[in-house]
Amino acid sequence: MTAPITADPESVPAAARPGVRELHDQLERVWNDGPGLRGWLMSTDHKSLGKRYVITAFVFFLLGGVEAAMIRAQLARPENGLIGPDLYNQLFTMHGTTMMFLFAVPVMTAMSLYLVPLMIGSRDLAFPRLNAYGYYVYLLGGLFLYTSFFLNVGPDAGWFAYTPLSGPAYGVGKRVDVWAQTITFTEIAGIIAAIELIATIFKQRAPGMSLNRMPLFVWSALVMAFMILFAMPWVAVDSQFLAMDRLIGTHFFNQAEGGDALLWQHLFWFFGHPEVYIIFIPALGFVSTIIATFTRREIFGYPAMVLSLVATGFLGFGLWVHHMFATNIPQMGESFFTAASAMIAIPTGVQFFCWIATIWGGRPRFATPFLFILGFFAVFIIGGLSGVMIASVPFDLQVHDTFFIVAHLHYVLLGGGVFPLFAAFYYWFPKVTGRMLSERLGKWNFALFFIGVNVAFFPMHLLGLHGMPRRVYTYLAGTGWGDLNLVATIGAVTIFVSVVIFLVNVARSLANGELAGADPWGSSSTLEWATSSPPPSYNFAHLPVVEGRYPLWSRPIEPPVVTGLRTDERELLITTLLDARPDHRHRTPDPTIWPLLAALATGVTFIALIFTPWAAVVGGVLVIGPLVAWGWSKPKPGDPVIPEGVT
Amino acid sequence: MRDWLQSALRPAGPEAASVHALWEFMLWTSVVVFVLVLGALAWGTFHRRPAGVAPTAEGAPGERRMTRVVSTAVGATALVLFVFLVFDFSTGRALTARRDAAVRIEVTGHQWWWEVNYYDSIPNRRVSTANEIHIPVGRPVLIRLNSQDVIHSFWAPDLNGKRDLIPGKESSLWIQADSPGVYHGQCAEFCGYQHAKMAFLVVADRPAEFARWYAGQADTAKTPTDSVTSRGQEVFLSSTCVMCHAIHGTPAGATIGPDLTHLASRRYIAAGSLPNTRGNLAGWILDAQGIKPGAHMPPNSLTPADLQALLAYLGTLK
Question: Which terminal residue of chain A has fewer beta carbons within 10 Å of its beta carbon, N or C?
Fold first, then answer.
């Protein structure tokens, strides 16, 4: 069944090509998830899992948003009695934990897990079963956190859980354990996503997609994946030290017994600061992709853009101490981190100038995705400028832990993360669902979101400068903070309305949106738009061959495709790292239930570990079973044969 | 300009003033950068394009000029950042310069109040108080910071930036007030339930007033002179109060809660949450949890007569 196929089904009417329908049916039989609930639970398809991942992350975004709304309701007036300190502390901890660990990072990895195989012209991710396991571990972590919260065991020591407040002496009960274990779940999911992305990007690019032709989004996914790989283990160690201090009486953070309370902060921020860039860098990839499509020209300065992404990835690890300027770090050391924090503005600036040059030389089209990109510029630049300000130690000591920082981080994360993400939702929604979102509702969504974000967060700069600390459940009327807080709450309501409009838009489009076709934007440049919308289970009937950075713009009438992959088994084409020359065929495993069962066993173990150290022993045994079955059910490695030929 | 209780934009001492100068420089530089970048973006987006001309491609003649513009912009960014660093480092140097401290004060953070101790080489001239720090005006004061339990952060924005109080790791901070007055501050590091209600006052006195205040605080408490205040002292000494509080000159010497020797001289109770009035004090004694849920002060049930006597006695602790 390795008959060479030479025609491209997208470019020739199906009726004119005998055998094309059979080919599609054959591939569909081999690559689809299988019928019913069973097929759904066994799925290892990166698109099916990617969609679930994005939807799950978005649900957490909505939950985090509801928490934010409750926080804003409480702070709208001085000495408000709506929410007491106990619930309030849980709410802001849940809000931060949800947004950072259950929404922002997962949604960015999820978008990458969905898009990368399509963008590089492959059929699936490198380790499809591991991908399923990662998703289920993440889902269980989120369910566990929210179940605990509704049982009044929600974490209440902040999303940063500083010791000793989170330690055994002051964080009594199980609340902090819930937090630490939730982090463990999300770390595992994050590291798995990183491994998937690195292996897939390095070894599965379509022939001809050498590194210097890789789409900028794929570059950003790669940099993000490496950052996850180097950042997440630190917080894994940190949260496990904390769990051990709490469960079995170790003294990692116990000053009195030779431990160090500040060690927690160093390890946490050595992860925590790169995390900001883990969210920001894939968003930069969205921005580059969408600007190229909607200005109908190549991104200005591709090499500079790539080098800036990589430079940001490295520099992102050199800034963590700027979260700790108030902890009495020697001044010489602080200066270093000030300089590093200022320096990271340079690669970011390079990218901004290149985008502006691109727009300048292009012909912009003001569809909703492009509007969100323009919003990204305005909002993120404010966050970036306040970021340079707080790189200064003396100034940071005034505004650190105040609402100025709350304003800064929301400008950065909403501007640098959520605006590009909404742009990406509007841009790729037709690809994922086959239907267009309404442009009219999209413009309302954008306008209200843009206004809401500025009304909610700009006044917080002033609140911080006028002395309002963060994480306070109330404040006295005499402080003078009431009016600005009320304005901020009105802004939050506006954001809420805007997100509701987005949900209405999605619901209406799914019900009876305009059909999209393969490339509804007409000027997209990357390979995912070469296949149908939504893409078939096998992504491409014939794997494409790439001859430039913008493959769809330089596509000849009869584009070259890969031939020689088996169609009766799941096979991937593996290519070389630098030049993406065909290397060998890889038999990738079939769907199976074992990753789900392994994830359930892992979840039970982690949750039981909160209560007894013996869970490590029992759970270890419990997890091994599904893992063995998982490995056992894999296909035997086939012959590593070079495909018969690339035409 | 409205009346803020505390503000970094209303500097009242040299430290806060130098940070304020840095802030103004950064603010106006940022405004200029923001206008330039968004202006370039707006022009780049909306400038008129001749009909029928295709978007420029990489390597086109116009691109070389664009490369020069982009490179210049990157160079300018680096230059602005360099100027910023120089300004920043010189401000940082000025803030941490060694000086001769007129007064050294030890501030210890507790959940959720501030213990304040003035050091003196003569033991009976040492002063212990809570939540209200008096300093002589116009003189550099060194605050040494420590914590009994979790991490807190000492911040009086009118006077200087903040500094964390980390258990077992002493740190320090300089403050100086240029004119007499009351400056508000509060805890800036999340420290549990009542992080919101952990405020303090810095009272800058003229040297003579400061000396008078200091001498008063160094005294032991007055012995009750009438029957009501005597009864009040008896209530204090025979109830749970003594488990946590100290009143010098009486057998009460616990150090878990604030030192009450000169309670009546303080402007606020409950770490800046309530003005120190007889009514507020009564409410606080009976039901602290209603005012500051989670605080370590337990509710007390006293007969009305005992409560009035206790309040009368506490009122004498000037």
Answer: N
Mutate to test the interface with B, among A75, A395, A406, A454 (most CBs of B within 10 A): A395
Question: What phi and psi values does residue A475 have, to the nearest 5 degrees?
Answer: -150, 155
Note whether A262 contacts B167, CB cutoff 8 Å: no
Residue B210 lies in a domain: no
| A·B CB contacts under 8 A | 244
CB distance A361 to B66 below 8 Å: yes
Low-confidence ranges of chain B (pLDDT < 70): 1-2, 52-60
- What's the pLDDT tens digit per position in A430-481? 999 999 999 999 999 999 999 999 999 999 999 999 999 999 999 999 999 9
- The C-alpha atoms of residue A224 and residue A218 are separated, in whole angstroms, by 10
Test B161 with A396 for CB contact under 8 angstroms.
yes
A382 to B19: CB separation less than 8 angstroms, yes or no:
no
Do B63 and B85 share a structural domain?
yes
pLDDT digits (tens, 9 = 90+) for A545-556: 998 899 888 777
User: Which residue shows structure tokens 């904390």?
Assistant: A242
CATH code of residue B243: 2.60.40.420
- Report the length, in residues, of chain A: 647
**pLDDT at residue A17 tops 90:** no
Tell me if A476 and B5 make a contact (CB, 8 A cut-off).
Answer: yes
H or E, element range at B144: strand B141-147
The CA distance from B175 to B168, in Å, is 22
* Same-domain status, B111 and B140: yes
For an interface test with B, which of A95, A328, A461, A475 has the most B Cβ atoms less than 10 Å from its Cβ?
Answer: A328
Question: Do A472 and A83 contact (CB within 8 A), yes or no?
Answer: no
Task: Quickly list H helices, A204-330.
Answer: 216-247, 261-295, 302-315
Q: Is B87 domain-assigned?
A: yes
